[in-house]
Design brief:
The complex is a heterodimer of chains A (694) and B (167). By secondary structure, chain A is an alpha+beta fold. Chain A has three domains: 183 residues, Aldehyde oxidase/xanthine dehydrogenase, molybdopterin binding domain (Aldehyde Oxidoreductase, domain 4, 2-Layer Sandwich); 326 residues, 2-Layer Sandwich (Aldehyde Oxidoreductase, domain 4), CATH 3.30.365.10; 108 residues, Aldehyde Oxidoreductase, domain 4 (2-Layer Sandwich), CATH 3.30.365. Chain A contains 15 helices and 26 strands. In chain A, strand 13 and strand 14 form a beta hairpin. In chain A, helix 9 packs parallel to helix 15. The longest helix of chain A is centred in the C-terminal third of the chain and has 24 residues. Chain A starts with 17 loop residues before the first helix and ends in a 15-residue tail after the last helix. Chain B has two domains: 77 residues, Roll (Ubiquitin-like (UB roll)), CATH 3.10.20; 79 residues, DNA polymerase, domain 1 (Orthogonal Bundle), CATH 1.10.150.120. Chain B contains five helices and five strands. Chain B has a five-stranded mixed sheet, covered by helices on one side. In chain B, strand 1 and strand 2 form a beta hairpin. The radius of gyration of chain B is 16 Å and the shape is globular. The chains are: A alpha+beta (694), B alpha+beta (167). At the A-B interface, helix 1, helix 3, helix 14 and strand 26 of A face helix 1, helix 2, helix 3, helix 4 and helix 5 of B.
């Protein structure tokens, strides 16, 4: 399927939007110049369940500079309430702490915020249920129709196999609430002109936002335009439309002028999603040869009362290792909490954490080196689907990575000591599915030999703007300088968002196909000569038919060295190395950054990240960067990523696998496994915190 | 309450009437349209709003505009001289020390001040006690830039960029 010779593709080209980003010239959603805009500020519920009895906005309305106060009593009615996340101020019901219950529009941000603080809301409060724990009441199997995947799978007889296994483990891992926290807070500017709405919005895919907003307001999609030239990260929280976007459009309509809304960092914790806590029971058993005879992965997660959303943490276990007897399951609790959303590698990130720690435990339990144990249990085909892999570089990554890292094979914790430091090393596998979405694109050639490529792709920091230009240049067999690429505007040809590591694969394939179509059109209709008005080709590319025949995934192996201060128990990670197999790497510079970035977030997950819900009130207690810690510069020491050459002709036109999420999978496991190697203590709950007495 | 303040911003005198609650960050972004300094937390916890105020790095979100009447402010937009980017700006592009770019203006302004602080011998937590000069090792750079969060995880490249410019 690979249809072009890579020249620019593969090169370590500087990020094309780098100069704009280092000079402050790159404007993000909230920074778009819009005349006569008013400021919107949100008031959030202070109860987790019940309803609003009364709202007294007298003080707010009396404040000079206040334009309007919006509550469920005067908010415009939405045309559709199908998406529960977008049903903002349509009734007095409160389903979680922090829900939007009112908003103020004012001339300045200071007045809007002051007025919001003057609004008095009276509630009828009902008892709430916000705590996830194993074996709690009300856990249920989600409906596959609703959640789009099979919650449970069974092959063979896990229970019997575990009973007769030569060695086995039965252990439970947990991960806490984690928040995406992109550096740019979610923001929207809404601007109505008659019945047409323009949104400058921070998101991961303008077309999806356009569709959701059009549905909510009962508009033809063409009447809504979403523009998102620069986006300050997302990691999942900006992929789906959230209620504040609808609120901004609603407010702009009500006050008949443009409205600007930026969520505060604190508001983001309740309003734009998070990763659910997970409870994952892992049972593994081996025979006398260190081969898995059984593997079972049972997952418990939460969702909100308003929407069913499932973190598919056990799905990875269906394809990762060979075992004749396998079982996976997902159980869900519906709580009075905000709806979880996707966060970098949803499902795979926490799932790989549990699986790869369990593999380490199992390896040592049957006295095998963790790398040798994984290689021994390498499947010939995808155990879940029975399909062959389009390519599977796990063993190569384990072997090559081990050599570069200097891995010392071992079958018991080394518990090395260097001065006051306890030192250990750990390994874990990484993996993430390789997929692509139906996408459209157009390419135009001008008489001066320049090209214009148009597609509603987006660059949230991934480097897509640069990588797509490289792909276009090679597909058009022209220098990079001759390609002009327009992205991040719903007025451009339809494309899916930056999510599921599908962005580059989907957009790049459409661009390659559009380039091929243009070449064909030029040849057949214009005898190879570009007419004065130029020539344009537009393509619609569907799903990958080869996905029916092959199991497609990217792989990797991560290696960590951990040092623990013997007195303070501070955990440091002086070395972290990732060896990846992800098909063709389009830009060696930005790809390395993206893989390292995933590993940094994985390190952050291992050591720091945890949002604590206060069960008395149902809110996230540590809702800012002072209390929700993410890795800072001083926490990140020697981290590097490399990749093996991998030729996969089946995945897409470039042979490139998505890498946005691959890097975060396995990092926390490698660190936890290294911590065990250093101390002999197996910590199974994230973030890793050593007990006082070791 | 409104008051009049006068500031030099990137070499240009500015005189404007502001709400006494207006932060220096909101003055720059919402009143002057200087949007290089970013709002990431509004609480001095992330560093995205870092600017140089009277030659020192500050979190503009924690500075009330009215308290800095007569102040001299340099933002990311004011670092280039005669059309030439500051060496750190070029180094950030070359080292790919950014991804989404939202923390980048704050990182670079902070790093500009780090170079000055090191040149002036200002010690940090990791400077050996009694050292008379400060050499910007990786450890020093990491420590001194830890007030600037980067969720994309570009830290190793940020350190590389700053090291390439450090004397």
């Amino acid at each position: 399927m690979t249809t072009f010779a890579a020249k620019t593709v593969g090169a370590a080209i500087d990020r094309l939007d780098g100069p704009d980003k280092v000079t402050g010239a790159a404007r993000y959603a909230f920074e778009q110049p819009v005349a006569h805009a008013a400021y919107l500020y949100i008031v959030q519920s202070t109860i987790a369940r019940g309803h609003v009895r009364a709202i007294d906005a007298t003080g707010a309305r009396a404040l000079p500079g206040v334009v309007e106060v919006i509550t469920h009593e005067n908010a415009p009615r939405l045309a559709s309430t199908e998406d529960p996340e977008l049903v903002v101020l349509q009734s007095n019901a409160v389903a979680y702490h922090g829900q939007i219950v009112a908003a103020v529009v004012a001339e300045t941000p200071e007045v809007a915020r002051h007025a919001a603080a003057l609004i008095r809301v009276q509630y009828h409060e009902e008892p709430h249920d916000v705590e996830l724990h194993a074996g709690r009441e009300g856990l249920y199997q989600p409906d596959p129709e609703n959640v789009g995947f099979e919650p449970d799978t069974h092959h063979g007889d896990v229970e019997s196999a575990l009973k007769t296994a030569a060695a086995s483990i039965d252990v439970t891992y947990t991960t806490p609430h984690e928040h995406n926290n992109p550096m740019e807070p979610h923001a929207t500017i809404a601007l109505w002109e008659g019945d047409s709405l323009t949104l400058y919005d921070a998101n991961q895919g303008p077309h999806a936002i356009r569709g959701d907003v059009a549905t909510a307001f009962g508009l033809e999609p063409e009447r809504v335009r979403v523009i998102s030239p620069h986006v300050g990260g997302g990691f999942g929280s900006k992929l789906f439309t959230h209620g504040h976007v609808v609120l901004a459009a609603m407010a702009a309509k009500l006050v008949a002028r443009p409205v600007k809304l930026a969520l505060t960092r604190q508001q983001m914790f309740a309003l734009v999603g998070y990763r659910t806590p997970t409870i994952q029971r892992m049972r593994l058993g081996t025979d006398n040869d260190g081969r898995l005879v059984a593997i079972a992965h049972d997952v418990t997660v939460q969702t909100s009362k308003i929407e069913e959303s499932v973190e598919t943490a056990a799905v990875v276990t269906r394809m990762m290792y060979a075992a004749p007897n396998r079982r996976t399951s997902h159980r869900l609790a519906r709580l009075d909490v905000p709806t979880p959303t996707i966060m970098r590698a949803p499902g795979e990130c926490p799932g790989v954490y549990a699986l790869e720690c369990a593999m380490d435990e199992m390896a040592l339990a049957c006295e095998r080196d963790p790398i040798e144990f994984r290689i021994r249990n390498e499947p010939e085909r995808d155990p879940g689907s029975g399909k062959p892999f389009s390519s599977r570089g796990l063993v190569a990554c384990l072997r090559e990575g081990a050599q570069r890292f200097g891995w010392q094979p071992h079958t018991a914790p080394a518990k090395r000591r260097d001065g006051n430091w306890l030192v250990g090393t750990g390994v874990a596998s990484s993996t993430y599915p390789t997929r692509r979405r139906p996408t459209t694109a157009s390419v135009r050639v001008n008489t001066d030999g320049t090209y214009r490529v148009q597609i509603d792709a987006i660059d949230i920091g991934t480097g897509a703007r640069t990588a797509l230009a490289q792909i276009a240049a090679d597909a058009l067999e022209t220098p990079l300088e001759r390609v002009r690429l327009d992205i991040a505007d719903s007025a451009l040809p339809r494309a899916g968002g930056a999510g599921g590591s599908m962005g580059l694969a989907s957009w790049g394939t459409a661009i390659v196909e559009a380039a091929n179509a243009l070449r064909e059109k030029l040849r057949t209709e214009f005898a190879g000569n570009v007419p004065a008005e130029g020539v344009e080709a537009y393509v619609e590319v569907g799903r990958n038919p080869l996905a029916e025949r092959y199991s497609m995934h990217a792989f990797g192996a991560q290696f960590a060295e951990v040092r623990i201060d013997a007195d303070t128990h501070e955990i440091r990670v002086p070395r972290l190395f990732g060896m990846f197999a992800a098909g063709r790497i389009v830009n060696a510079k930005t790809a390395r950054s993206q893989l390292i970035g995933g590993m940094v977030m994985g390190l952050s997950m291992a050591l720091f990240e945890e949002t604590v819900i206060d069960k008395r009130f149902g809110h996230f207690a540590n809702h800012d960067f002072a209390e929700y810690h993410i890795a800072s510069n001083a926490d990140v020491l020697d981290i590097d990523a490399a990749w093996i050459d991998e030729d996969d002709p089946y995945v897409n036109s470039m042979g490139a696998k998505g890498i946005g999420e691959l890097g975060i999978t396995g990092t926390a496991s490698a660190i936890a496994n290294a911590l065990y190697d250093a101390t002999g203590l197996r910590l199974r709950d994230l973030p890793l915190r050593l007990p006082f007495d070791i | 309450m409104d008051v009049e303040v006068a500031l030099h911003v990137n070499g240009t005198p500015q005189r404007l009437t502001v709400d006494t609650r207006t932060s220096l960050l909101d003055l720059l972004r919402e009143r002057l349209g200087i949007t290089g300094p970013k709002k990431g937390c509004d609480h001095g916890q992330c560093g995205a709003c870092t600017v140089l105020l009277d030659g020192r790095r500050v979190n503009a979100c924690l500075a009330l505009a009215v308290a800095h009447d007569g102040g001299n402010v340099i933002t990311i937009e004011g670092l280039a001289e005669n059309g030439d980017l500051h060496p750190l700006q070029n180094a950030f592009v070359e080292a790919d020390a950014l991804q989404c770019g939202y923390c980048t203006p704050g990182q670079i302004c902070s790093a500009v001040a780090v170079l000055d602080e090191a040149a002036a011998g200002v010690p940090s937590y990791v400077t050996p006690p009694g050292a008379s000069t400060v050499s910007l090792s990786d450890e020093e750079i990491r420590e001194r830039l830890s007030g600037n969060l980067c969720r994309c995880g570009a830290y190793v490249n940020i350190v590389r960029a700053v090291r390439s410019v450090a004397p």
